[in-house]
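Q: Hi! Curious about what Tetraspanin looks like structurally. Here's the sequence.
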Amino acid sequence: MVSRLLIGIWAAFDFLLLCAGIVSLVLSIVWSAPDILMNMVLSRADLTAGTILGIALLITFALSIGGIIQRKHVNTGLYLLNYALLVDAIGVVIIGTFVWWFTLKEMNNFHNLWLAESVNNRIALQDKFKCCGFFDGTDGVAIGGTFCVNDQFVNNLTASFCVTPITQFADGTLNSIFTTVYAFMAIIICFFLATLCVIKRRQEEERFRKIDEKRGGKGFV
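A: Let's find out. The predicted structure is below.
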């Protein structure tokens, strides 16, 4: 029979896959709540991709349970599991790489997002970070609120521009996201290999069982 150690390792990676799916799904739902800054950092497409990835990982977990409880000589479910893991791996690479690529030009990307925001949203961010404009006081500044109260105040500013706090928040958030997503890849690869080992061991057991049957069930000396 398959050793307890191998099954234990397989079950551990299966549990980690379940956790990865829950994390991806829950964070995608939580971060979709109305929040000006987070909604700027993560677009609706990003959150949808995270939701799809979470659901895919949870479906893969369900396939793993169905595959492992099949009779020992039936490995169809485990084969399907590994195909699903390959699909998951492709999704992880695409999502992680897309987020990483976006971080390479953060200042320009968030400058465009800043200019696309409504005046009210820019005022809210300026009040939050005590800053005016993006790169300087003339770059997409929104007059109003409690900090950038008038043009004279903005013109006298020599610092306190919004590029630094916004990109710092975005950099920390996006780096954490693509690092976590790439960590999912380690789980998927290890689980894939563990499943191959289980399949191989079950195939060996079935082969020896058939040989034993031909010998009259006497077993090997």
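A: A fun detail: The first helix runs from residue 4 to 30.
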